Amino acid sequence: MTGVNSSGKSSMIQSLLLMTQSLYNDTSCVLNGPLVRLGDAQDLVREGATSGSTQFSIGFDPQFLDGGTHDRVRVDYELVATEDRSSLRARRVSVQSAAHSAHPLVLSQQNSRGSDVEQALQATHHLGQTEALHLKSLLGSEKLLLRTYVIHQGFRPVAVVQLMAPELVERRYASALEALLSGKYRSRSARISSGALPVAIRELSRLLSDAAANDPTKRSLAEQFHEVRNGNPYMFERIWNKLDLTLQAEAISTAAAQRKGRPFALLPIQGTLWGHGISPGVLEGSLEQKLGATYEVLRSINDILDRVAQRVQYLGPLRDEPRVVWNHWNELARGLPVGTRGEYSAAVLSRSGSNVVQYHPPEGGPTDATLSTAVNRWLTHLQIGEKVTARSRGKLGVGFDLRLGDSIRDLTSVGVGVSQALPLLVGLLSAPRGSIFIVEQPELHLHPAVQARLADFLLMARPDVALVVETHSEAFITRVRRRAAEGGIDVADVDIVFVEPHKTGSETRKLRLSEFGDLSEWPAGFLSSAEEDIRAILRMNIQRSSESHNNG
Question: Which pTM does this prediction carry?
Fold first, then answer.
């Protein structure tokens, strides 16, 4: 990612970091967290904007949506400030799917009944800080589901709640349970394999036990189902078939009467929801069927957001100044493999230097080696040192010893560029497999030749890691183009995004990289100053040569 200063590059990265740190906890959007600090919620609203809201869009590629919808999905959030302006909450969410473009999923707080919103939030109060968004339209369908709300925690959908009158709950539960137990809608084997029957059995046993606790006359009936609390369908079948029709009807009606005490169906999107003491049941299964593609895409969104939160690793643009020793040992934060400024690099190499990592050295294919070996091989390739060792200084902390020829020096005795590059080497080589590694301005304080070799490191060292690099370095971009022309990289794996300021904000252009190392376009301001200077020098030399010739 590149572009002129103040074009909006950092805003794009900060948006990803905002989302990531908001997913770390069961809470709303976190504006000021371990990855990024953005200040007051109002600071995020563009100057001159009339809506007072912040728009946030995420696109998901099909390859990341295992187990759910396999269409490209785009999620658009409209976020507004909370009352104390310390955070953001979702006011509207829309989901577009390539296969259902005519009927997007729309969730909104607009025109929602206040009492229903309060009831939906009460049903999920155990989840912590949430927002209830009214389900305005289903994905890929013109059908409407009345009094249905999607519960959000920040960016994450965590549950669907459908509110119903108690009498309607009783009727629907009895009808659905009777149909399920009789096999009216599907075969016995299908009911068992789908998981619907075991869920219904567990719920029936639980409801009958609850009813018996309130009414001793129901104790005998409830005890007959005590052995199937685990939902065993084969044992249940033997017990059920021993009951006459009257007792079967009594069991269903008793359970239905107990079920109406909870006048809603609560369907989890996030799998850990049941850990909060809420168990699934017949009405939840019915709601899942009615939601159809909507439920699938909500689960996929939740899944991909979880993966993003687990994968993002970040290194900021301003690395720590060179020191003899760092006193940081036990302060590593999630998503910051060596700290925001690389201040934990020495501690990480000291602790994990003997850990085996898989990486690509400057020459050759994938190799297993210790982290220290991997760091030193690439350090030598960058030509900024021959070997670095993390050494404990006891109570003082830990420091780096760098070998340069026959000398061993600390980082205060060598060029600043070494202290800028080391955090990147340690951070990327130690990153978990499949990470999304984000680094801003890796080229700072480095000679252009070292910047080019650093581009090789990022391109080659960890092909299993997705990289987001923000750079102003012409040497960096040129080396990427060269490797494309040489066939050293697959151009399909590289996106070059140019960000430029616009009257209404920032605009991005994706510059296509060809197999010959050419770019599809050269926007104004794209790494142009050096070429303009060269052209100016050539023009002046031609002019002087012409004047000298004429004077002669």
Answer: 0.83
